[in-house]
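Handout, section B. The chain below has 175 residues.
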Amino acid sequence: MGLSDKFPSFSFELQIIQAQNIESIKSKGNSLFARLYLPIGNNKRIQINTKKVSSKATMPFWNESFGLECSCPQEFLETLKKESMVLELRQSKKRIWGSHLMGKGEISLKNIFKSPNLIFKEWVKMDLESMSNCEEGMLRVPEVQVEIKIRVTSMEKEEINLNKWDKCGSPKHLT
């Protein structure tokens, strides 16, 4: 077995469910979407955008899932635990390209790794990017509900499980 075969398998599933308290954001009549930046090491990150939903909805609902799987050294996982994901609530511009940042929140990967069964389901508070984005007299902070599941498995454990399966009647042993 080569060195790369001993790297753990890392699986990340993100579900962006819905937003609330967006009535405090001045609507310019354009659609809303969420954008997530997932750190991948070396000051690099992956950008993920949800589909666009109406900004006129009281509680915009995405219920959209994204998944990522990779093999990586244990050191990378330890480094990842010190990072944070950035979640943004954005409003598309009337022009074809571009969007306007309405609010931003952070999710510590350390909190996800510490959560029961590595499942994190929370309302992420959005810090408003500008008070000019806020309707006068509105004090409720916009939030986006997310569910994040992480699975880390050792490749050696997976190989042991495959070997057990082979011994339990796979075609290899039926000859």
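Note. The mean pLDDT is 79. Compare this with the example in section A.
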